Amino acid sequence: MAERLMGIETEYAINGLTTWGGTHDQSDLLNRFMGVARGRLVHLPDVASGLFLGNGSRFYVDYGNHPELGTPECANPWDVVRYILAGERILADLATAMKRELAEVDVLLFKSNVDYGEAWVTWGCHESYMHRAATNALSDDIIPHLVTRTIYTGAGGFNSLSRGLEFTLSPRVPHLANVVSNNSTSDRGIFHTKDESLSKPGFHRLHIICGESLCSETAMWLKVGTTALVVAMSEAGLRPGHGVGLRAPLQAMQTIASDPSCAASVEMSQGRHLSAIEIQYHYLTLAERNLDYARMPSWAPDVCREWRAMLNRLLDAPESVATTLDWAIKRAMYAKYANDRGVDWESLPYWTYALTSLRHAHDLTEDYGQPFTADFILQKRSPISPIQQTVQRLTPFLAEHGLSWDALDAVIAVRKELFEVDTRFGQLGERGIFSSLHRAGVLTHHVPGVESIDDAMTRPPTVGRARIRGEVIRRLAGRSGYQCDWQGVVDVDLKRVLDLSEPFEEVERWLDFDQARRMGPPVFADLLMRLSAGAGAPTWR
Amino acid sequence: MRLRERSDDDRQRDDEPGDDSGDANLAQMRLAGESLLAAGADAIQKALSGNSESFLRATRQQGGQ
Q1: Closest alpha carbon to A358 in A163, A191, A222
Q2: Residue of A25, A28, A46, A62 marked active site
Q3: Secondary structure of residue A85 in the 3-state scheme
Q4: Whether A337 contacts chain B with CB within 8 A
Q5: Closest CA to A73 of A124, A123, A134, A127
Q6: Chain B CB within 8 Å of residue A282 CB
Q7: How big is the A-B interface in CB pairs under 8 Å?
Q8: HSE (side-chain half, CA atoms, 13 Å) at A342
Q9: Which of A22, A159, A326, B25 is deepest in the core (most CB within 10 A)?
Q10: Which residue, among A280, A442, A445, would best test binding to B if mutated, counting the most B CBs under 10 Å from its CB?
């Protein structure tokens, strides 16, 4: 029997760029994209407008008009990574197939965590961990882990809310507003209180929304592996967060995300200071001491070994992760790009201060609608112009740091270019920058055991209810009268439900509607209520 | 609590006098870094649209959760 189950939902950005330089209507693009998916993928419809696929995953359009893929429930971190990668191959294939639908449109899919087009938005990569722990203990146990794991789980990129150019280990962090929150579209928290188990009573689902979509297999694998172990330790009552409670978790996360050296220390509840690496060693050491504990999964020793190796690298030779972790790969490349374009990477904090001040002044003038260019900013103006005054005020500041306004044009250009580069880093398909680096053989991110991706595109995991879901979908796909959800498949015509409310279900077990109803509202009420709200759906009575 | 406890600590071995493995690792790391930067520069050049402002405007989205 599988010891733990976990999965990932990833939100992808999609765009249709026309050959004449325009943008295809987003709603139409998504409708066509889903239409192509329905025509090509082995699936059963879900209770809304999405699909459950033959590999047990769910593909749908979510809040914000973007495609989203939820992996099947997986029993180990290798499978989680496999099914993420399989899902991305599925999406990339669909984008290619769209060429037949819209020949004049180039369909692009991005695994990007933030938008750099001044929309100030973020995309989520949500993690789900099945558990049985009490929620109030879980938050204390896991928050220090979520804050400090950033040193190896950060996607890297830029603060999209900044008017300058601020590299961060985690571009998601500026979009977090609380330590604990039940919201996922605004005022997001480090710890999300949502506890929708999608299983029968007795099971909970920890839903983590502060993480990011990643390209590195190592980073993805460590993210889910280490977090699953912390959940397991919490479930076992080992209180893994004891002694490493943070005085101000949100500020600590901002500090850690701003520090590529991974050496910054943050204040603990008791007043002492520890670095992210030290806090991670605390969790790791506790896991290593409890490997034999019944709640720990069989793969815990593998995770602990790689976890320790990663922390040792970050401590002893941080430069060695530059070919392994997303943020470190990006930082090395982006620094070179900026330097090659004549903008000293180390000068960016000063330029960020200057750009922020100038933007503020620009917004105060009646010319706030004018493009923010060096020519516009530096043109001769009245001495009382806010822009002119800001330029005068900043001139000695820049000179003090060996900088001058001569570089402003390059700085503004590099800012936009690096925003495009960061968006294209996670572009799906062969044109993505990460994909190019992988093919060039210059990365060391692959996790042995994450293999057979093509197989995972069509086949479900071998354990847990996802296996049964996938097998049933593969058998019934194309037939009408079936609708699927995480905890069941409804056969509308025969008025029966495939019961998948047990996460570790091993047998295909169909219940008639009366039997399903007797299982009580927590199990099938949501599924059947949603079905009864749809056209042609069965009445639940 | 032993925060820096390391069961497979190899740092000490690397620091032993007369041991060349530290230098070899460093050289290997440097080579890997140079390869990454060269491949990265090439990949960026191929990926950039030539008009980043227009690209960012065209790909502006509603985001998600």
Answers
A1: A163
A2: A62
A3: helix
A4: yes
A5: A127
A6: yes
A7: 173
A8: 11
A9: A326
A10: A442
User: Cα distance from A311 to chain B (closest Cα, Å)?
Assistant: 10
Distance CA(B31)–CA(B27), nearest Å, equals 6
Q: What is the mean pLDDT of residues A482-490?
A: 94
Phi-psi region of B20 (alpha: psi -120 to 50; beta: other; left: phi over 0): alpha
Report yes or no: A461 and A56 within 8 Å, Cβ to Cβ: yes
Q: What is the dihedral of CA A301, A307, A308, A310, to 10 degrees?
A: 150
Give residue B2's pLDDT band: very low, low, confident or very high (50, 70, 90): very low
Contact between A64 and B65 using a beta-carbon 8 Å cutoff: yes
Q: Which residues contact A201 (CB under 8 A, 6 or more apart)?
A: A520, A522, A523
Residue for token digits 């912390």?
A230
- Taking alpha carbons only, the member of B62, B5, B43, B19 closest to residue A124 is B62
Do residues A138 and A130 make contact, with C-beta atoms less than 8 angstroms apart? no
Which chain B positions have a beta carbon within 8 Å of A413's beta carbon? Answer: 52
Interface test with A, best of B2, B3, B13 (most A CBs within 10 A): B3
Contact A419 B52 (CB under 8 A): yes
Place of tokens 């190896």: A152
Helix H or strand E segment including A300: helix A300-316
Tokens of A59: 């593909």
Quick check: A448 pLDDT over 90? yes
Dist. CA A299–CA A36, nearest whole Å: 38
Is residue A188 over pLDDT 60?
Answer: yes
| Helical axes A348-364 vs A386-400, angle rounded to 10° | 170
Report the alpha-carbon distance of residue B29 to residue B49 in Å, rounded.
Answer: 32
Show which of residues 89-108 on chain A sit within 8 Å of chain B, judged by CB atoms: 108
Q: Please, what is the Cα angle at A27 between A25 and A33, to 5 degrees?
A: 100
What tens digit of pLDDT does each residue of A124-169 get? 999 999 998 766 789 999 999 999 999 999 999 999 999 999 999 9
E-strand stretches of chain B: none
Q: Give the residue carrying structure tokens 């037939």.
A: A479
Element (H, E) at A87: helix A77-101
d(CA A251, CA A347): 24
**The predicted structure's pLDDT at residue B12:** 44
- State the burial class of residue A186 (Cβ atoms within 10 Å of its Cβ: 0-12, 13-18, 19+): exposed
The string over B17-55, giving b where at least 16 C-beta atoms fall within 10 Å of a residue's C-beta and e elsewhere, is eeeeeeeeeeeeeeebbebbbebbeebbeebbeeebbeb
- Angle value at C-alpha A10, between A8 and A13, nearest 5 degrees: 175
CB-CB under 8 Å, A117 with B56: yes
Q: Which helix (H) or strand (E) holds A282?
A: helix A276-289
Which residue on chain A is closest to B12 by alpha carbon? A316
The answer to whether the complex's ipTM is over 0.85 is yes
Within 8 A by CB and 6+ apart from A274, the residues are A244, A265, A266, A268, A282, B3
Which of A123, A333, A433 lies closest to B63 in CB terms? Answer: A123
Q: Is A514 annotated in the active site?
A: no
Residue A6 has phi, psi (to 5 degrees) of: -155, 165
- List C-alpha distances in Å: A281 to A236, A445, A473: 19, 22, 43
